[in-house]
Design brief:
About 20% of the residues lie in helices and about 30% in strands. By secondary structure, the protein is α+β, with helices and mostly antiparallel strands. It has one domain.
């Protein structure tokens, strides 16, 4: 069986997005907005894995409670 090809879940090349349990859910124009939204979700749903994706650097960082 051939492995599934990797594909980008984010089409945007600028801005920030929230990745929730491995799926991109919401995009933001600023890092502060993304981190604020992530912190609010993490406060309400601490069991979820929430990360902020930076489209410019193509990197993810975890949100801590």
């Amino acid at each position: 069986m051939l492995p599934m090809p990797l594909r980008s879940a984010v089409s945007s090349k600028i801005g920030f997005a929230l990745e929730i349990d491995g799926q991109i859910k919401t995009e933001f124009s600023t890092k502060e907005g993304a981190e604020s939204g992530a912190a609010e979700l993490k406060r309400r749903f601490p069991a979820l894995r929430i990360r902020v994706y930076d489209a410019e650097t193509r990197s993810l960082h975890d949100v801590r409670p």
